[in-house]
Amino acid sequence: MSAMRTLFVLAACLLLAACAAAAQRMQMEREELAIYQSHAGEPVDQVRTFRMHGWQAVADRSLLLETRLNQWYLVDVFGPCQGLQFAHTIGVRAAMNMLRARFDHIVVDGQSCRIESIRPVDARAAREEIRELRRQQ
Questions:
Q1: Fewer Cβ atoms within 10 Å of its own Cβ: the N or the C terminal residue of the chain?
Q2: What's the confidence (pLDDT) of residue 97?
Q3: How does pLDDT run across 45-79, given as a tens digit for each residue?
Q4: Are strands 99-100 and 46-47 parallel, antiparallel or unpaired?
Q5: How far apart are CA 1 and CA 54, in angstroms?
Q6: Which long-range contacts (CB under 8 A, 24 or more apart) does 98-103 make?
């Protein structure tokens, strides 16, 4: 009986540690998103001559897209885009080399997530602020 009790306590501790780690990850995600939003400009309707060079998930409905060398946009989709934060690859469904808010889509694991807004962002400044925040923690 003592071994079962010990096993139960150990399992409960592991579960609590996992919950704490998940909560900490979610808090970091919210902080990073707020920093990127603070470094983002006004929404634009479209990005002409769009060609994706890189991307980074920021939240379940936000990502950064690099269109040219060091030219980044904060893209929000309508509703959560399941799996975005853990995706290894994404696709962009756009027409005529233009990325348009409210019309085009981000594709993750076969799921099509319609773009709500596109905002130019100073990703370099945002990342520096995030690094500084992490150093302070």
A1: N
A2: 86
A3: 999 888 889 999 999 899 999 998 789 999 999 98
A4: antiparallel
A5: 55
A6: 98/46, 98/47, 98/48, 98/49, 98/50, 99/46, 99/47, 99/50, 99/65, 99/67, 99/73, 100/45, 100/46, 101/43, 101/44, 101/45, 101/46
130 phi, psi to nearest 5 deg: -65, -45
Q: Give, rounded to a whole angstrom, the gap between the first and last alpha carbons of the chain.
A: 42
pLDDT, position 1: 61
- CA dist 101 and 115 (Å) reads 5
At residue 6 the predicted structure's pLDDT band, cuts being 50, 70 and 90, is low
Are 103 and 96 contacting, i.e. CB atoms less than 8 angstroms apart?
Answer: no
Helix axes 2-38, 123-136, angle to 10 degrees: 140
Tokens 């970091």 found at:
28
> Is 84 in a helix, a strand, or coil?
helix
Tokens of 36: 């990127």
pLDDT at 21 over 50: no
